């Protein structure tokens, strides 16, 4: 089971792993906490962003081979431009949800599915989005309640990412909402990552899953991050996005595993 905060998070962080596991015959379940209704997008009159994003989520999930998609129904907490929890947010914002209550909702799905693995985010929520931080708290507790044996924290190897951003900055002007300096403390350094999953074989599905979230490739006064990613040429895309990283806290930091279910010598 892959637990994410908003539609499109699955495409950015875990899509290749999801497609890989589905192709291997595993039952893959995708759960999102919110519909992402506070994301930036250009909508047609009468359209609701949350409904649109959930439709995009189902399309993405189908492309990746998911057998089931669920939304816990919490409100998108939003994010300040400079980072941190938004001042104005819905009454049912995920960040304000009772952790135990939300964890029991997720645990019920874990138990129903008899899930052997759950992916969440690291304690800092990757780049710090409040809803991502809450995914970590709720997901960790849900795994305890359900007795889920393997919990992986989806992340990005910060070391090559910083190098790529430095090189890209010489040739490309990043959009205003994208500050490369935020990644100096985001995600995880290579030394703590335990799983490096090669998903190059599933790059087409991953790219198609990204493209399914069309609402998040538009809006604002400049190129969106997702739109920039989709412009990357195929061979470079497979190289840059061909590995997905995870941290498993009950194995030694830096253990080099290549499959989510791979055992490690104790």
Automatic annotation (TrEMBL):
The lineage of its organism: Bacteria, Bacillati, Actinomycetota, Actinomycetes, Streptosporangiales. GO terms for biological process: glycoside metabolic process. Pfam families: PIG-L (PF02585). One of its GO terms (molecular function) is hydrolase activity, acting on carbon-nitrogen (but not peptide) bonds, in linear amides. The keyword Cell wall biogenesis/degradation does not apply. It comes from the Bacteria. InterPro entries: GlcNAc_PI_deacetylase-related, LmbE-like_dom_sf. This is N-acetylglucosaminyl deacetylase, LmbE family. Keywords: Zinc. It comes from Nonomuraea maritima.
């Amino acid at each position: 089971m892959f637990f994410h905060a908003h539609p499109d998070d699955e495409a950015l962080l875990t899509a290749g792993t999801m497609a890989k596991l589905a192709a291997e015959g595993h039952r893959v379940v995708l759960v999102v906490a919110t519909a992402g209704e506070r994301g930036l997008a250009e909508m047609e009159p009468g359209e609701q962003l949350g409904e649109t994003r959930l439709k995009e989520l189902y399309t993405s999930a189908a492309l990746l081979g998911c057998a089931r998609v669920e939304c816990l129904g919490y409100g998108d907490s939003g994010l300040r431009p400079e980072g941190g929890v938004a001042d104005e947010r819905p009454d049912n914002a995920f960040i304000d949800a009772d952790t135990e209550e939300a964890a029991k909702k997720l645990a019920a799905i874990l138990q129903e599915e008899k899930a052997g693995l759950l992916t969440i985010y690291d304690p800092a929520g990757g780049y710090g989005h409040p809803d991502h931080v809450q995914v970590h708290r709720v997901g960790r507790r849900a795994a305890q309640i359900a007795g889920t044996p393997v919990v992986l924290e989806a992340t990005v190897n910060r070391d090559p990412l910083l190098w790529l951003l430095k090189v890209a900055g010489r040739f490309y002007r990043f959009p205003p909402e994208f500050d490369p300096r935020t990644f100096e403390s985001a995600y995880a350094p290579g030394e703590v990552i335990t799983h490096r999953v090669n998903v190059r074989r599933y790059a087409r599905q991953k790219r198609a899953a990204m493209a399914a979230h069309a609402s998040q490739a538009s809006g604002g006064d400049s190129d969106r991050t997702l739109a920039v990613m989709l412009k990357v040429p195929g061979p470079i895309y497979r190289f840059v996005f061909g590995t997905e990283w995870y941290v498993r806290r009950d194995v030694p930091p830096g253990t080099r595993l290549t499959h989510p279910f791979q055992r490690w010598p104790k």
